[in-house]
Every structure is written in structure tokens, then in C-alpha cells.
Write a structure and sequence with these properties.
Blueprint (H helix, E strand, L loop, with lengths): L4 E7 L2 E7 L8 E7 L2 E9 L12 E7 L20 H14 L11 E9 L6 H16 L8 E8 L2 E4 L3 H6 L2 E7 L4 E11 L1 H14 L1 H14 L13 H19 L5 H18 L6 H23 L14 E5 L7 E7 L2 E10 L5 E5 L2 E5 L1 E6 L16 H14 L12 E10 L4 H15 L9 E10 L2 E6 L3 H6 L2 E7 L4 E8 L6 H22 L16 E6 L5 H5 L4 H10 L2 E4 L4 E6 L2 H15 L7 E10 L2 E6 L3 E6 L20 E9 L5 E4 L1 H5 L11
Parallel strand pairs: 5-6, 16-17, 27-29
Antiparallel strand pairs: 1-2, 2-3, 3-4, 4-6, 7-8, 7-9, 9-10, 10-21, 11-12, 12-13, 13-17, 14-15, 18-19, 18-20, 20-21, 22-24, 23-24, 25-26, 25-28, 26-27, 28-29
Length: 703
């Protein structure tokens, strides 16, 4: 019934298995990939005909994690998987980025790649497995995909690179880098690093590229046995050479003039006018979709040719100069920390809010539930590019850019025990003309320091571009939006004056060489150091203390056996403390107590209350307490928080007392001295001996 093809190799110390022919046989391509005990089913399907009127490649990649893969039942009321998690969105992008440039030119058929995690061994992350599987499924599908690609994760510890580190090894590593590419070169890089040098980062990229070559050969071996017949690509419905010539003749000069305009909106108006003229003039000879496609090619030729020929860019800069920078902090009076970072026509308003551990994000992942105390949210409203558009929940691009900035900042955050705040940073991109994610990195660094978060060092980021032709190439620092759209590379580097903390690279051509990456990293370092210098004009380090509008968090430790006393039955005691003092209280299992309040007096009151609860009464020490009950044989006094003791009638006063109520009443504040403990540990108190005592050394006010 099944014709199964199976290939396997040892890779990074574990067995990698590719299998096709048994599951999902109606898909154009389907491969079951297993690495260790992690298994992902990857399928590829494309429509038989292109969508009419579509002038782009409609590719969708969906990575999905099933709870059963880790033996879990989803949480929530519906008990089924819902909207994609942040990780599923990020991995979908991770798969999409290296495969998208490898589809044949002119292919416009709707294409969908679906990667489903069926088993997770909690050691080998399914993202690399899914990338390999997506490549294999496309390679055997017959769809015009010019792969295969492969991918690998690279760690770095004690001066040694680690191929495909396990989850535990990644946690101990100085680097978490994912690299993907073909036999010829690298197509995509995503990473987080602990201030590593450019040489170490480049070495990691090349280490990964070298070590995933056996996987490419494995996919080729599978395709030689199981690949379907390749699809025939339809010839263009028009004479491309003739249309190119007519466009040059009709609007070439106008487009060249437009790309000398340094202001983005003015440039776009002139380009738009040239395109409208082309559509009107050539409408009888060619269809609008063909004109639009070739017009974009004309734009690219003019921009790229000018840079390679003259070394000058759209806005007049050379290839290495960074746009003018203005950094401002404290721009929002009520925010805990804020910064406005402007670089050319790109601007980010970045705001930091400090919270308590109650504000941490709870993440329910296949690997288990955990808490995240640093969140970075990136928003890209349509007005930032002068457009009116739909606004809603964040898309894949916004989630991806936010995570890149998160990775850049994360290695420099103070330890939680040194700065026990939950950090939420929101970046509102208010203007955009290239590299808004790197503006977010710079703004986040300034905003956190403005809030008093003691970053180890300031962080800056820069986006590099590439124009590569047969006769040469140029690496561009701090690229504009047009240079991103019409260029060959988007290469983002973030870091400190010491080293790199994040590296992200996307290539739009088949691959780039080690030489180009080395030049880009060196040029990016120079640009990063320049940007850090400009940022230092606003703030050189974290402010002393947190903003006056932020909560003050005080950390104290109590004995673990006293936790239940502070919480009380059903949480009664801790609720009372919170209600009466107005402070927030978080108690951890090890006895760490975090007390927070904007008003320090409220925090102090809560701390004194807690200390009173956990303190042990000491012999011969005098405390201030409150009479809570009067009985015939004495009075019960509450002291040291919730602790009660008995003042026997014989210990109420110097003279003989006939009736307890003659001396004290319920609610009275009294001074009592600890004179002993009974067999059950109950405290014996005396008011009489306080009257006899002399000297301040015997008196200790109740805490």
C-alpha cells in the first residue's frame, strides 16, 4: 500500500531521518523528519495555476506545535490549540526567510508549507527539524524550488563551537545562532550572543554552513529516489526585452530624477507619477501587471547602478556614513522611562514600564510553563510611512522585529536578584525609512536606562545592505527603505562597544560569500560605535534609582517555615497587609519576599508588619502590643504582628488587682515584657515588670 523512501545520517551526535511516501500522500511533497525523538511532518502544496492579477509570490509558511507532541493537554476552556503562539510565528518566519528567494523567477502560484510538530523530546528544538523538513518537502514536490537548503543551530562555549546544542546546552552557551543556506553560501542568520566579537560570530556562521552540508546531500539522495516530475514554468506573456526598452524610453529619465530626491515622500510622489505615466502610455501594448513588474526592475537597475558607479546613494551619503542622529530621554513625564530615537527619517518612541513579579508573562510552551520578566513589544502603525491603513493585532513582521530587539538587549539586562522588576518595553515606530528594528534597539537601551534599569552597557544596532552585480558589489551602512527593497541583503547587527549581541541576516539572492559577510560585520562595527557615541549625548548609563512614578521594590528574606504565617489561612493575613498598607507583596517558595509600592511609606509599613509576624519573641525584651481580649484571669495581648501572649492578672500591676477590666480594656495599647513560655510554647507576658524595669536597653518596640 505504501512506497516508503527513507534516508538517515548521524548528525551532531544524533540520528537524522527523512521519510516520505507513507503520510500525507496527497500533498505535492511530504516528509517526516526525526531528529533524536523530535518528529516534524512537513508538507508543501502549490496551486496548479497562478492567481490572476497577482504581481508577487503568494507563499505562506505555517509552523504549528501540537500539545500532544509533549504529552500535554492544552490549557484554557476549549482544550485545543488556538491562535499561533509567539514561538510558532517566529519559527514560521524562520522557515520562510531562506526558502522564499529560491523559487523560480515569475512563479506566482499560491504555495503553502505546513510544518507540524508531532513529537518533542524536550532536548532537540523542532525549529531546525522543521526547516530541514520544509526544504525536503519542496525539493521532492516538483514545485519550482531551486534548493535544497539546510539549517543548523550553533552554540559557543569555552572557545568551542557546538553543533545543534540541546536545550540545556543552549542555556549554558554564549551564543544561540541559527544559520540556513545552500551548498554555495548562507541565506539566513538569526542569533543572540553575549557580546561576542565579529570574528567569533563569522566563525559560527561558517561553522554552521560547513556542518549542514551533509543534510543537503541527504535531501538530494531522497529526491533522487522520490522526487516528482518538475513543473513546467510558463513563458512570460510579453516580450521582457521590448518592455524594458519601452520603459527606459518613456520614463527612464523621470525615475533617475526621482532617485536624486533625498526626501522620502517627495521621492515616492515622483516615482508614483512616473509609474502612472508608464501605465497610461504603454497600456495598449502591455498589461498593467507586466508593466508594474518591469517598472520595479527599472527602479532597481537605476538605484543599484548609481551606487556601484558613483559610490553615492539616494540621500547623497557614501556607502559608510550613518544618517544624522538625535537621541532624547525623559520625553514622557509620567512614564517610568522613555526615549525618542531619531535617525534620518526613521524614528522610534520607546517607553519602559517597571512592574512586579505579578506582572510577569506566563508562557505555556511544549517544554513546560515558565515566566518571562522582560517583554518588548514593537508596533508599526501605518502613519509611520505616511499611509492610512488597517490597525489590529500585531502581525508576523511586528512580532519578528520585536523579538530581534529583545535578543539584542536581553544579554545586557541586570540579574533579576539585582534588579527585581518586571520590564515591559513598547516601541512605537513613529517614522520609518529603513531599519526601524535597529532604532528600536537604540531607543530601548536609552529608555531602560532612563527608567533606572542598570544595563551592563548601552546597546545600539545598525542595518547593512548589499548591492551585488557580476562586475562588483557595495556594502551599505544604515540602509534606507528603498535600499532594503531594491537591494540584495538585509544584515542587522546589534551590540555594545565590547561585542555583538544579535545578528540577523536575510539574503534575496542565492547566497553571499564569507568575504562579503566579513566586510559587512567590520563596517557594521564602525557604524555601531558611532551610534553609541551619539546616544551617549543623551545618557551614558542608567539613572541612579528608579523613576519617582515607578514602584519601589524592597526584597527581604524570611524563614521558609514562616511563609504560612505571613500568608495566613486562605490568604487572610497577606490580604489584610495589602489592603491596609496599599503595598504589593510577592512571596516565593524559598522565603524571598518582594514588597513594592510607589510610596515608600506604604512599603515600609508592610515590611514592618511582615517582620513582626516572622520575628520570634525574646526573653526579657519589652514590646508594644494591643489588648485583644479581656478574661477573668488576665488579658491577651497581640504583639509581634499576629502573635498573642497572656498577661496573667497577677502580672498586670504592682498592686493587687481585683478585676482585670479595672486596669486594661480591649483595644488598649500597652507595653509588655516576655517573662517565659509554657509547655506548649505559649508566651507569658508581664506589664508589672515593665514598670519595674529601668534603662532603654530592655525596651524593644513591636515591629
Amino acid at each position: 500500500m505504501f512506497t516508503v523512501h527513507r534516508k538517515e545520517i548521524e548528525w551532531g551526535g544524533r540520528k537524522l531521518v527523512l521519510e516520505t511516501g507513507k503520510i500525507a500522500r496527497q500533498a505535492n511533497g511530504a516528509v517526516l523528519v526525526t531528529y533524536g525523538d523530535t518528529t516534524v511532518l512537513c508538507t508543501a502544496v502549490a496551486a496548479k495555476a497562478p492567481k490572476p492579477g497577482v504581481d508577487f509570490f503568494p507563499l505562506t509558511v505555517n509552523y504549528q506545535e501540537k500539545a500532544f507532541a509533549a504529552g500535554k493537554i492544552p490549557g484554557g476552556f476549549f482544550k485545543r490549540e488556538g491562535r499561533p503562539t509567539e514561538k510558532e510565528t517566529l519559527v514560521s518566519r524562520l522557515i520562510d526567510r531562506p526558502i522564499r528567494p529560491l523559487f523560480a523567477d515569475g512563479f506566482r502560484n499560491e504555495t503553502q508549507v505546513v510544518c507540524t510538530v508531532l513529537s518533542h523530546d524536550l532536548e532537540n528544538d523542532p525549529d531546525i527539524v522543521a526547516m530541514v523538513g520544509a526544504s525536503a518537502a519542496l525539493t521532492i514536490s516538483g514545485i519550482p524550488f531551486l534548493g535544497p537548503i539546510a539549517a543548523a543551530r550553533v552554540g559557543y562555549k569555552n572557545g568551542q563551537y557546538i553543533l545543534n546544542p540541546t536545550r540545556d546546552e543552549v542555556g549554558d552557551s554564549d551564543l544561540d545562532l541559527v544559520v540556513a543556506g545552500t551548498t554555495e553560501g548562507v541565506l539566513m542568520v538569526e542569533s543572540e550572543a553575549k557580546e561576542l566579537t565579529e570574528e567569533v560570530m563569522l566563525g559560527a556562521v561558517m561553522f554552521g554552513h560547513t556542518n549542514f552540508q551533509p543534510v543537503i546531500n541527504l535531501i538530494i539522495d531522497l529526491a533522487e529516489e522520490a522526487a516528482k516530475e518538475p513543473w513546467d514554468l510558463p513563458e512570460p506573456a510579453y516580450d521582457r526585452k521590448a518592455l524594458k526598452a519601452r520603459l527606459r524610453e518613456t520614463v527612464g529619465a523621470a525615475v533617475e530624477a526621482a532617485y536624486t530626491e533625498t526626501v522620502k515622500q517627495s521621492r515616492y510622489e515622483k516615482v508614483g507619477a512616473a509609474k502612472a505615466k508608464a501605465l497610461e502610455t504603454l497600456a495598449e501594448e502591455f498589461d498593467a501587471q507586466s508593466i508594474g513588474f518591469e517598472f520595479k526592475e527599472l527602479e532597481a537597475d537605476i538605484l543599484r547602478g548609481a551606487v556601484l558607479k558613483t559610490g553615492r546613494r539616494i540621500d547623497g551619503r557614501d556607502t559608510k556614513t550613518v544618517r544624522p542622529i538625535v537621541s532624547e530621554v525623559g520625553v514622557l513625564p509620567r512614564a517610568h522611562g522613555s526615549a525618542l530615537f531619531t535617525r534620518g527619517e526613521t524614528q522610534a518612541l520607546v517607553v519602559t514600564t517597571l512592574g512586579t513579579s505579578q506582572d510577569e508573562q506566563i508562557i505555556d510552551a511544549l517544554e513546560g510553563e515558565y515566566r518571562e520578566h522582560f517583554m518588548l513589544h514593537y508596533n508599526f502603525p501605518p502613519y509611520s510611512v505616511g499611509e492610512a491603513g488597517r490597525m489590529g493585532s500585531p502581525g508576523r513582521r511586528e512580532i519578528g522585529h520585536g523579538k530581534l530587539a529583545w535578543r539584542a538587549i536581553h544579554p545586557l539586562l541586570p540579574k533579576k536578584e539585582d534588579f527585581p522588576y518586571t520590564l515591559r518595553v513598547v516601541s512605537e515606530v513613529t517614522e520609518s525609512n529603513g531599519s526601524s528594528s535597529m532604532a528600536t534597539v537604540c531607543g530601548t537601551s536609552l529608555s531602560l536606562m532612563d527608567a533606572g534599569a542598570p544595563l551592563i552597557r548601552p546597546v545600539a544596532g545598525i542595518a547593512m545592505g548589499l548591492i551585488k552585480e557580476d562586475h562588483g558589489f557595495a556594502v551599505l551602512s544604515d540602509i534606507l527603505g528603498d535600499e532594503d527593497h531594491l537591494g540584495d541583503m538585509d544584515f542587522k547587527v546589534a551590540g555594545t562597544e565590547v561585542g555583538v549581541t544579535a545578528l540577523q541576516m536575510d539574503i534575496k539572492i542565492t547566497s553571499i560569500t564569507e568575504e562579503i559577510m566579513k566586510i559587512a560585520l567590520g563596517q557594521a562595527k564602525d557604524g555601531r560605535l558611532h551610534i553609541l557615541g551619539e546616544m551617549s549625548k543623551a545618557l551614558t548609563g542608567a539613572r541612579e534609582g528608579v523613576n519617582e512614578n515607578a514602584p519601589r521594590i524592597t526584597v527581604i528574606n524570611i524563614p521558609k517555615e514562616k511563609i504560612r504565617d505571613v500568608i495566613g489561612s486562605g490568604g487572610k493575613v497577606i490580604r489584610e497587609i495589602v489592603e491596609q498598607t496599599g503595598a504589593k507583596i510577592d512571596i516565593e517558595d524559598d522565603g524571598t519576599v518582594k514588597v513594592s509600592a510607589v510610596d515608600q511609606k506604604k512599603s515600609d509599613a508592610a515590611i514592618e508588619w511582615i517582620k513582626g509576624i516572622v520575628a520570634e519573641p525574646e526573653m526579657n525584651v519589652v514590646y508594644t502590643g494591643k489588648v485583644v481580649k479581656v478574661v477573668d484571669f488576665g488579658a491577651f495581648v497581640n504583639f509581634l504582628g499576629s502573635r498573642d501572649g497572656l498577661v496573667h492578672i497577677s502580672e498586670l500591676a504592682q498592686q493587687r488587682v481585683g478585676k482585670v477590666s479595672d486596669v486594661v480594656s480591649q483595644g488598649d495599647s500597652v507595653k509588655v515584657k516576655v517573662i517565659g513560655f509554657d509547655d506548649r510554647g505559649k508566651v507569658k507576658l508581664s506589664m508589672k515588670q515593665v514598670d519595674q524595669a529601668t534603662g532603654e536597653d530592655l525596651t524593644k518596640k513591636a515591629e
